[in-house]
Amino acid sequence: MVSLVPKSPCADLLPLAIAETTVSEVVPEAITLVAPFKGKKKTVSDALKAEVGVGFPAPGRMTGKQDARCIWVGPEQALVIGPAVSPDGAAVTDQSDGFAVIQITGPMAANALARLTPIDLRRDHFKPGHTARTLLNHMTCSITRLGAASFEILVFRSMAKTAVHELTEALKLLEGRAKLS
Amino acid sequence: MRLDRSGGDVAPSLSFTFDGETVRARKGETVAAALLANDIRLVGRSFKYHRPRGIWSAGPEEPNALITLGRGAAQTPNQRATVQEVYEGLEVSSQNRWPSLKTDLLSVNDLAAPFLGAGFYYKTFMWPRAFWERVYEPVIRRAAGLGALSGAPDQEPYEKAYAHCDLLVIGSGPSGLMAALVAARAGSDVIVAEQDHALGGRLLAEVEEIDGAPAADWVAAAVAELEAAPNVRVMSRTTVTGVYDQGTYGAIERTAMHVADPGAAPRQTFWRIVAKASILASGAIERGIAFANNDRPGVMAAGAVRAYANRWGVSPGKSVTVFANNDDAHRTARDLAAAGVTVAAVIDPRADAQAIGDYPLFSGAQVTGTTGRLGLTDITIRDASGKDQSVWTDCLAVSGGWNPSVHLTCHMNGRPVWNEDLAAFVPAPDAVPGLFPAGSADGAQSTADCLRTGAEAAIAALEALGQTTEAPALPKAENGFTGHTPFWLVPGKKRAWLDMANDVTVKDVKLAAQENFASVEHMKRYTTQGMAPDQGKNSNVAALAILADATGRTIPQTGTTTFRPPFAPVPLSAMGAGARGKGFAPERFTTSHTATEDLGAPFVEAGLWYRPSYYPRAGETTWRQSCDREVQMVRNAVGVADVSTLGKIDIQGPDAAALLDFVYTNMFSTLKVGKVRYGLMLREDGHVMDDGTTARLGETHYVMTTTTAAAGQVMQHLDFVLQALRPDWDVRIASATEQWAQFAVAGPKARALLDVVLDGPIDWAAWPFMSCGNIGVAGVPGRLFRISFSGEEGFEVAVPARYGEALYRLLLSQASVLGGGPYGMEALNVLRIEKGFITHSEIHGRVTAFDIGMERMISAKKDCIGKTMAARPGLLDPARERLVGLKPTGAVKELTAGAHLFNMGAEAVRLEDQGYITSVCYSPTLGSFLGLGFLKSGPDRIGETVQMVDHLRGVKTEVEVCNPVFFDPEGGRMRG
């Protein structure tokens, strides 16, 4: 019996470190898109709490922590990153393989993203646990602030190479800029 | 020349080249300061007449001293010598001269000046029409010019970035600094953008005291406070270039233009700054006075002359004269005299002018002319009594007053307001929401007023942001030098320049008025006054004053032209940073990409996806050989193709079937679980949007497949339907395209291949044509669809994308055992043309279901999007261009896509057009070229012969009109 060897979206691309800032891939156990049906948000939120301990997030917010988190990604839509879930009352779509999950951490993380995304990433405006659907240069993405100098970026799997390229170029320019004075 | 100052100026420590000659300079100097320090006055040739020109200003408004930096691919033209900082090894070239700056052959244009006035081009180059682009334009472009790019691609790094703040302070003179201090102390999140490398604005160029100490000390303390504040971001070398909706500002930062070795740093950065409010403290620009031959090297703005002396310790001349209508310009005479420079004369047209220092003053006098071919040598002064005298001078400092820099307040359609007392335009109130003008940009005349209005603007801005701040104690500062009387021009017959950047004289403006180009916007187009490169920063108001006079109107009646972004030039390389080459768009790769690369397949872009064209094998020298082999392989054995790029949309919910019935022309509510159906989707206007198959995985769960190109469009369409048309439906949609790696397995040996790969054994009787379901694939939960785009017995097998590469390699290795292998887009295209299957080559947006012979797919039992509009009589006219198959029957056995069809014997011209060809291929199965196309009354003309003419490629042949399904029309092969 043959068996298929899995490969993650950034397997050949990450990790990398530039200017004391690291870019790495996270391969979660599962990514599940949960979209509650009409009037079922509370039921679904309760079901998620029972299943993995995190509720359905408000718009622009993340619930939970590193091992199980729920990221808002659109009207009545959230991605559960962690164990696979199947709450009743929601359209559930497995997206475990659909996204490259990239974390960027370090002193240049926010500055690198400020080269690529138009959203306001200032600490007071985009706090840990805040999330946004936005652009990473030319591609759509989801950006979540995990910590003071740490962000999680979700892009379509097929665009992982371009996403890593964009982050690399932004960091190289920042490194060059830092060496100027 | 360099001044001998006691302040401890360091000796010149670095050198750069100007037109190949070495120039010694001090760190922190601009190219202009260094050139003047070395007595180089001639720096460029004028745009039209190639007149010798020198440095006019000490800032970004410079009209004359445009230079090219570096050479080769990275050479950067049209930089301002008055802005560019020197560094060791900098290469500077002058522009618009040949063969050299001192001997410019095109200065012959100056002799032809009587013929080259305003409107010259419009009057002269009328005919013949064929000469417009081929003769006139190249000649004019060569004669009238600026610097040039090298023509080679510039590989230097540039950058784009975003910034956000509560308050953006534009400019850092006394008002900008004061505003920033107030906002910073109030805890506001502040960005200070300053075009210079140092903060301080005019305070760096004036001899003034603030709070009893040199102004520079106050600047240093303010800058130190701002730089230490955690809530303040100081962006120097950053010019705000545009104001856009909702508090968005464009800005260009000269990030690494000032260093010899920029390394990996971006040369320039284009910023988009989003601010809740802003302070416009952009200062003012000094204006000239029009008099005969006022454009010679050595004639400079008075404020610039003392800026060079006070800030850089450089005197632009050995014997300086001043011609001005205001008290402020007398400071130039005072400061230069104090620095030990000879001040030969101050000429002030005001009869009551008073000297503020020890210099000869000619009050009530005017300058009526100048001499000096490559640089000023003498001026003629007409004194109050009307007597002329000549004075030797190598630098004439001119001031006609100051124009507030109101440009940014006009970027959202605001028009500045004429202030009679100031004889200047000031910003209109609330011209830009959330933008508060302050200081001399708002008409303030003295440092004290600038500091006060800066603080007031900050308080007003903070109040607008909901924050109350107390008025700060204001530093004590200079409050004089405000007297002035408007004075625009010295009458005379000789040419008096207004716009030095574009060689526009007083005479040109008067001629425009005389020829009835009397509106200010018409005058601008007729004379080119106020166009590039300085955009009229220096000349606008003076030109308006002269136009007003010539047309008998007031200046406010005359109005201004429209100031548009950008305020300062922004290189396209900065605006497009990161988008060069492949940075233009993201690249999307399938999971089989690496394995496909390993096989040497060339790729074709489909949307953003990269898909293999064909898989060359040893001995194959053309793509056709590979393609033909792959087609035969699928028809005779088995082929494998990655079809993951097709859009997959997960549709779930109680109303899922209703949604599909509404967006597709045909029924999906009747589809049984475990079955797949082909569907056709229309736009509202009744034309075809997309097609594809949709599978029913469960009672309330479907998966829709779209074409690769229309995946985004269809997703958007469904979203629109659910949000706008039927928000009452309980259904959720999700893109699942990226979750699945999906491979087509097609051919008579498809089952044999799948038998090896699928967790078996498989009961194939349970998998009839158009069935689907979950299935184990080499131990992984996957999906199987029995569908065919090749006409062979075909399947699509899907696994989660992480297993895509492994499954692809497994399928290929097993296929080779069966005499099969991979096939690319070329073979895929041939297979589908042989079967008459359509793609977006056919459903290109202008065809209806009727045109492609699918009108019966519009179900009569239900409504669907596009149904009503598709029933319009004109869309059901049998004479429309409708889908047919085509085969060559003439001497030329080739078809070309894009060729047009004409009746036999008809002339191949537009009026005789009968249709066109959308897809062609060579079919190795049928041994002929095959085509799909649209022909008037097409299906009614099967068997007819028409002519095909490809005007572009020069191909002509005769073609037979056929049924579009060329191969296996009964479909027995794919049903198995």
Structure notes:
- The complex is a heterodimer of chains A (181) and B (976).
- Chain A is globular, with a radius of gyration of 17 Å.
- The mean pLDDT of chain A is 96.
- Chain A folds into 2 domains: 12-27 and 97-181, Probable tRNA modification gtpase trme, domain 1 (Gyrase A, domain 2, 2-Layer Sandwich); 29-95, Alpha-Beta Plaits, CATH 3.30.70.
- In chain A, 20% of the residues lie in helices and 36% in strands.
- Chain A is α+β, with helices and mostly antiparallel strands.
- The longest helix of chain A has 19 residues, at 160-178.
- In chain A, the strands form 2 sheets. In chain A, strands 1-2-8-11-10-9 form a 6-stranded antiparallel beta sheet. In chain A, strands 4-5-6-3-7 form a 5-stranded antiparallel beta sheet, covered by helices on one side.
- By secondary structure, chain B is an alpha+beta fold.
- Chain B folds into 6 domains: 1-150, Ubiquitin-like (UB roll); 159-284 and 404-464, FAD/NAD(P)-binding domain (3-Layer(bba) Sandwich), CATH 3.50.50; 292-401 and 498-558, 3-Layer(bba) Sandwich (FAD/NAD(P)-binding domain), CATH 3.50.50; 593-645 and 739-832, Probable tRNA modification gtpase trme, domain 1 (Gyrase A, domain 2), CATH 3.30.1360; 648-735, 2-Layer Sandwich (Alpha-Beta Plaits), CATH 3.30.70; 878-970 and 972-976, Elongation Factor Tu (Ef-tu), domain 3 (Beta Barrel), CATH 2.40.30.110.
- Chain B contains 23 helices and 49 strands.
- In chain B, the strands form 13 sheets. In chain B, strands 8, 9, 12, 13, 14, 15 and 28 form a 7-stranded mixed beta sheet that branches. A 6-stranded mixed beta sheet of chain B has the order 40-41-42-39-33-43. Chain B has a 6-stranded antiparallel β-barrel with strand order 44-47-46-45-48-49.
- In chain B, strand 1 and strand 2 form a beta hairpin.
- In chain B, helix 5 (174-185) runs parallel beside helix 9 (447-464), helix 16 packs across helix 21 (825-834) and helix 19 (750-757) crosses helix 20 (804-817).
- The relative contact order of chain B is 0.07.
- The mean pLDDT of chain B is 95.
